[in-house]
Amino acid sequence: MGSKNKLKRFKENETFDNVFQPKREDLVDAKYKLQGQWNSVVFKNDHPLILELGCGRGEYTIELAKKFPQKNFIGIDIKGARFWRGAKTAIDENLTNVAFLRTQIELVDFAFAENEVDEIWITFPDPQIKYKRTKHRMTNSGFLKRYKTVLKPDGIVNLKTDSEFMHGYTLGLLHGEGHDVLYANHNVYKQEGSPEEVTSIQTYYESQYLEHDKAITYIRFKIK
Q: With 80 as the cut, is the pLDDT of residue 1 above it?
C-alpha cells in the first residue's frame, strides 16, 4: 500500500464514528473515557461484548457482527490503514454492532475495564517463532493475565491459526498453567463437530491457506 493511500485512509478513519484512536498516554496516564463504558456509550445497549485482537482488515470482526447481531464486536489493531476496510464496510452496510480501536494489544487492560468483556478472538496472529520474540506471542502468560483482567469470570478466548507451532505452544501453556481447554482441533475443516462460527467465516488469507491444503487449527479456552 502506497504512503498516499495510507494517509488517505488515516484521514478517513478520523471521520468514522465507529473508529476510536486514543493516544497511548490517554490509556496509560489516565483512565480512558470509554473504559467500562463501551456498551453504554458506543453501542447503547447491554449486549455481550466481544473483542478481536490483531484484527487486520477486520474481516472476521465484520462477519461475526453479521452472524451475531445481538452481540457487540470491537476489532483491535495498531495498524489503522488495515482496519479502515472493516470500518468502512461496517458503515456502508449499516452494522451498528461493530467498532474498531487503534491501539497496541498489550494495552487492552487500559482500554477496557475489569470484567467488561465476554469473549476474545485471536485470529491468525504472528506466531513469533524465534525465542527472543516470545514476549510478543499473543497467548503468552503475560498476555493471558491481561485478557483475564478484562474478561468476565466465565469469559472465553478463541485462537484460530494456521500455525501448528502457535497451536502447540498455546495448548502446552494452557495445560501447564491449569487453564480450561474447552475445545481443541488440529484441523477444523477436516474433522466433524467443529464450531460453525469457526468454519463458516474465512479471512482472505485463510481461504488462500485452504487452497494449498494447509490445516487450520482452533482452541477455545477459559483463563483460570
A: no
**At CA 83, angle to CA 77 and CA 102, rounded to 5?**
35
Burial of 118 (0-12, 13-18, 19+ CB in 10 A): middle
CATH 3.40.50.150 correct for 120-224: yes
- Nearest-5° Cα angle at 190, 170 to 71: 65
Q: Does domain 1-57+68-104 have CATH number 3.40.50.150?
A: yes
Q: Global pTM?
A: 0.93
How would you list the strands of the sheet with 72-77, edge to edge?
Answer: 19-20, 98-102, 72-77, 49-53, 117-123, 151-161, 217-222, 180-185
Which residue among the candidates 26, 126, 162, 213 is catalytic per the annotation? Answer: 126
Predicted confidence (pLDDT) per residue in 43-92, tens digit: 999 999 999 999 999 999 999 999 999 999 999 999 888 899 999 999 99
Name the residue ranges covered by the structural domains of the chain: 1-57+68-104, 120-224
Judge whether residue 4 has pLDDT over 90: no
Q: Is 126 a catalytic residue?
A: yes
CA distance linking residue 127 with residue 173, whole number of Å = 14
Closest CA to 218 of 86, 190, 64, 208: 190
